[in-house]
Amino acid sequence: MIYVRFEPISTAYVTMGIDPIDSLNSANPVPRHIMLLPPVTDDLTINQHTGFNVIDGQDQVRNFLSSDRGRQAAWLDYREEGFVDDLLPQEIAELLYLGHKKAQMVLPFYYKLQNEYARVPLKTGLVNSYWRHPERFATVFAVAMNRHLRDVLAQKPFWFRARNHIGNEKTPPAVQKQLEQLFPDGVAFDWPSAAINAREVEVPMLRLPERQLFADMNPDTLGGEELGKLVLDRRSEQWRVEMNK
Is 93's pLDDT higher than 90? Predict the structure, then answer.
């Protein structure tokens, strides 16, 4: 299941099924430095000024975010190695609150960090992600959709996945714009119920309460309002949206 809801005021996306690996595999730049929000662990570097774990170096950041541990971590990036030492006590308190309560007192963008992004997984399985440049989400979303496509096709007979480049399908700008119009109200892409044949892949799009996503992930009982479907034409290798009338 992929779920997306956009909050325009906070430039935050509430998501499920979109992982750090999708951002690493997108065209977006990989952070060179990240600061992890509590809990703090002794087996990673601890910044003495903030008391938070930090990871410096693009390769080290990539390795961490590619791991299961990185998938579950709450973190934000910063531009240069010494920038965290300039945070004020009030700003550190705000980040402590964000790490413990999973909710922001203020938007987690700091002049002293020059950060572009913050990611806060919730206990429900949803993720709050904050974007200084929310337009960058589109490329990460496309990578996540293609990853789910590969996972679904991998479970099918070989003739359904004959092309070596499967999973690199394009999301045309017009399609992305249609989807972005749905995101403020929340939309679930029901991959477990996807219909697949040699010509097309059809993924139902649903509107349903967020609490239902983590309360009952059985696709047979999800219910919700079916908005339409996202369809992949396997010959043109492009997606299109078909809305219910």
Answer: yes
